[in-house]
């Protein structure tokens, strides 16, 4: 790059967000609701562990709600976020290359540095608050797969997606037959000592959630890069037909694939061994389809906004939340941890699933209100500000 001498270092400036496509931010804002709902019931304890982490012997409203969530939410929210993360990496690489602002360092190195910053934030989140963190898993993938995500061929990306998704689905073989009379699947939730809980969270995260989440999300991230290269979310009006077909097929597959496990959770179907082992992988595989379908649906809504002159108040609120998705995600954990574990208020003990879900919706709604107020004040989310500072340096410029 002109003006750069060997061995010199020039500060890399953060790129503004004013020109970003609305579809991914809309999807992030809505996906945070799905994540809040999916995570809330995992804090319920002292009810035994059943299908996919739900309490045993569900009945009434809890059974109905668990079935609905297995159809539309569980195993669908994180693949959606993975797709959006891959999309974001691809767009970061494209803009850096097009704008010529790589400041003497390869884009791959920049992606790895951003991944390292995200890994650090996620690690702190996992140890201090919740071992099920996914931010560190995204950071780890950015570090390990930066070359593939930035300049990998279509064949390499498809192969990565197919291979990692196939292996990840195998981990779901016993999901439909899970039943254990234990207080919680995560010991850190049920200990009443803050120090012991932190120690337990470290082990749960490092040897359990981190590698499993990274494996499960790798395929979705690769799909997100392919989606970015196709340009569908950048120009949703032009690709309206493709988005409509993808949304219908993906969400439809998610519902059909989630039906067997939903019936098991609701107590309607008691599968044999072979069918039970198949239900979990089918639910997981269909979750990736649903994640892509939800992203396409966001593109359709963005295309409609383009014809109407922009989003309404609700759409603007979701966009503001999506632009502060990391802060909102971390805020959910702060709220859940303050309420549910035994080492805090302990409200998760014996809590009905419907109550946990209602709490999740409420927490998400509060983050939307805060994000909207921040947007009107021209403020970034605190986690986004920290991530940019760690990635680009404290002197990085950023537009609201």
TrEMBL record:
<feature type="transmembrane region" description="Helical">
    <location>
        <begin position="205"/>
        <end position="227"/>
    </location>
</feature>
<feature type="transmembrane region" description="Helical">
    <location>
        <begin position="326"/>
        <end position="345"/>
    </location>
</feature>
<feature type="transmembrane region" description="Helical">
    <location>
        <begin position="248"/>
        <end position="270"/>
    </location>
</feature>
<protein>
    <recommendedName>
        <fullName>DUF418 domain-containing protein</fullName>
    </recommendedName>
</protein>
<feature type="transmembrane region" description="Helical">
    <location>
        <begin position="165"/>
        <end position="185"/>
    </location>
</feature>
<feature type="domain" description="DUF418">
    <location>
        <begin position="227"/>
        <end position="393"/>
    </location>
</feature>
<dbReference type="Pfam" id="PF04235">
    <property type="entry name" value="DUF418"/>
</dbReference>
<keyword id="KW-1133">Transmembrane helix</keyword>
<keyword id="KW-0472">Membrane</keyword>
<dbReference type="InterPro" id="IPR052529">
    <property type="entry name" value="Bact_Transport_Assoc"/>
</dbReference>
<feature type="transmembrane region" description="Helical">
    <location>
        <begin position="351"/>
        <end position="371"/>
    </location>
</feature>
<keyword id="KW-0812">Transmembrane</keyword>
<dbReference type="InterPro" id="IPR007349">
    <property type="entry name" value="DUF418"/>
</dbReference>
<feature type="transmembrane region" description="Helical">
    <location>
        <begin position="282"/>
        <end position="305"/>
    </location>
</feature>
């Amino acid at each position: 790059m002109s003006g750069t001498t060997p061995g010199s270092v020039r500060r890399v400036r953060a790129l503004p967000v004013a020109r970003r496509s609305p579809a991914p931010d809309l999807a992030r804002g809505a996906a945070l609701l799905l994540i809040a709902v999916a995570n809330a019931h995992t804090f319920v304890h002292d009810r035994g562990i059943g299908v996919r982490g739900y309490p045993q012997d569900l009945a009434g409203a809890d059974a109905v709600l668990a079935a609905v969530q297995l159809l539309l939410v569980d195993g669908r929210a994180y693949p959606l976020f993975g797709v959006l993360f891959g999309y974001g990496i691809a767009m970061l690489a494209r803009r850096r290359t097009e704008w010529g602002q790589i400041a003497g360092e390869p884009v791959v190195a920049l992606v790895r540095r951003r991944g390292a910053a995200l890994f650090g934030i996620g690690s702190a989140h996992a140890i201090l608050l919740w071992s099920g963190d996914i931010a560190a898993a995204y950071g780890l993938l950015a570090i390990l797969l930066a070359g593939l995500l930035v300049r990998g061929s279509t064949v390499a990306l498809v192969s990565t997606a197919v291979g990692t998704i196939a292996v990840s689905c195998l981990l779901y073989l016993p999901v439909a037959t899970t039943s254990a009379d234990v207080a919680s699947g995560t010991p850190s939730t049920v200990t009443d000592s803050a120090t012991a809980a932190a120690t337990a969270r470290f082990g749960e995260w490092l040897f359990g959630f981190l590698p499993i989440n990274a494996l499960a999300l790798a395929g979705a991230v690769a799909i997100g890069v392919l989606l970015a290269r196709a340009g569908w979310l950048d120009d949703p009006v032009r690709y309206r037909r493709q988005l409509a077909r993808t949304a219908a097929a993906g969400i439809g597959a998610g519902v059909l694939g989630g039906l067997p496990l939903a019936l098991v959770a609701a107590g309607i179907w008691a599968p044999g061994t072979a069918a039970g082992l198949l239900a979990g992988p089918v639910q997981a595989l269909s979750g990736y389809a649903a994640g892509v379908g939800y992203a396409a649906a966001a593109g359709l809504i963005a295309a409609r906004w383009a014809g109407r002159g922009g989003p309404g108040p609700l759409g603007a609120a979701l966009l503001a939340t999506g632009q502060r998705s990391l802060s909102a995600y971390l805020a959910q954990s702060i709220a859940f941890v303050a309420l549910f574990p035994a080492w805090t208020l302990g409200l998760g003990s014996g809590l009905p699933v419907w109550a946990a879900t209602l709490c999740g919706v409420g927490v998400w709604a509060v983050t939307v209100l805060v994000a909207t107020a921040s947007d009107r004040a021209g403020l970034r989310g605190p986690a986004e500000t920290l991530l940019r500072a760690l990635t680009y340096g404290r002197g990085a410029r950023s537009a609201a």
